[in-house]
Amino acid sequence: MSYDVLITGTGMFAGRIALDIAATAKTPVTVMIAGRNQMRLDWLRTAGNARAAMFGTPARFETHTLDLLKPGASEALLELYKPRLVVQAASIQTSTVISDRGSRWTDLVAEGGLSATAVFQALISSRMAKAITDISPSTKLINCSFPDVVNGMITAMGHNVLCGTGNVAILSNVFSGAREHLPKGRMRVIAHYQCLAPWRLKPQERMGCPAPRVFIDDEEISDPFKTFENCQLTPEPAIEISGASGVTLILALISNDEWQGHVPGPNGLPGGYPVHLREGELVLDLPVGISETEAIAWNEDFERRKGLIVEGGTATYHGRLKDLLTEEGSAHAEGFELADLERVCSDLVQLRDRLMTLPSAT
């Protein structure tokens, strides 16, 4: 049997997507959820089908127990369920690293940036992307694991990825929910994931932080921090918004509808953009006067200052992140070939595990 959507992963992010599909689907959609946590799978199936009944939606959920790290796991799922869309939400790095404290590893991520985790986020996603290329090239892939950076790694490895969820879509939806005193018109937001951090701070602490670019139609808002000063994110991952942000896109893909919104990493680009879905493909939907080259360069500049840049088949660390990896003795501080991702991931897991045993220096 073929399924409309295969969700890989059973964490809070995957659960938010599944349960919001259950509550909002307007046309029939079949969802298979795969992961290794049997009790969590049983709950997501039960809750998904209960919510579909509760809200009267034509959504149906089933589950498959499988260790997604097991060799051949992605291939097996594609062959069994033939999904039209894979929503890959599994990772060997928990998203709570953005709020955890107390170890040398969390120090490194806090100071060097989330691109310290990019290799961990890319492991399962790159395996699924390769499996789609080899077995089911018509299947679309939405990668939820650090898409601002990982999606560029996937495309550089020769595979397709439609986009990610969250990040820029967190901000665009937060701003849209707080626009009572703004002019009418289409809101467009260009934002890198590093633009999220200021909104986790109190309003008076945001001065000097990197701001997103926000437009109403083609007119740019000069001071987003002032305009949206009452908007506040949690210190933890904003899953109530980020996981949910991909649901309308997922349902539009399944029902072959057009869609306008915001996504990170569309077609492997760095950072996040306003987009338009037409006939199953995403195109950038930028304000007049902002070229694609300008928008891409603006997003990429964040990683050049502090992060990971993908050029050709090579990933290179930059700025403070590169310095910190060098200080901790990483063999890959200068970067690595994407063809070596599996080996590099194994090496960096050892570094992470060692640093997690050491107390924070702060």
From TrEMBL:
It comes from the Bacteria. This is Saccharopine dehydrogenase NADP binding domain-containing protein. It comes from Limoniibacter endophyticus.
